[in-house]
Amino acid sequence: MTQLPAQTRWERLTQWPLLALAVAFALAYAVPVVHPGAESGVQDVCVGVEWVVWGAFACDYLVRLALSGERLLFVRTHWMDLLAVVLPLIQPLRLLRVVSTLALVGRRARMAPQIQLTVYVGGAVVGLLMFGSLAVLEVERGAPAGNIKTLGDAVWWSFTTMTTVGYGDHAPTTGLGRLIAVGLMLSGIALLGVVTANIAAWFISRFERDDEEERRQTALLETLTQEVRALRGQVTALGGGTECVCGQGARRAPLA
Hints:
mainly alpha; 8 helices
């Protein structure tokens, strides 16, 4: 049996523990935003959980960097992980490991690549929708001219922004809120393009499979037709030889 690289073994070993930490971070991030009037002790616990999770992800990055063998290549190909470690303010992006976990489950279930991509996109949509809502709510709640005051308003705004519908009933008024809106718009357009390409690829693959099956059946019919023609030729040849032998016997009978 082939020995897996050390980095792959580490990633498989830590996949589920990091997923649990990601869920803990999501809860710790959401509680102070949804309930800004929570007790100071609760907020301190949430901040502590966030830093513990950030430290765990930082250790995970350093271990994978050490096990990669080609550290410069690892840094170039995992630049988002590096940003999430260096800049704790954007560490919610590390929760996209949830998507990779779902994709891993999909591969173990032997799902089609299109289904794996659908699971990935679905997880990305949920993550961006949740954190976009919490982020804009945290920024816009205290804005004097803002109209995003509740979690429901924030979720509705995030959904309409990501789908590029933009009803305009809720909109950010602060600079940071508008920056979050730009990010959600670009993410929504990108995800919509991925979904469209995924559906198109699925139809194309189905058509290609149907064409291949049709070509295979056509080739089989041609082969059977040639065999039938060859059998007919043999039968005709045998029939002609029999008639010839019978004719010779009929001419020789009077001489006897």
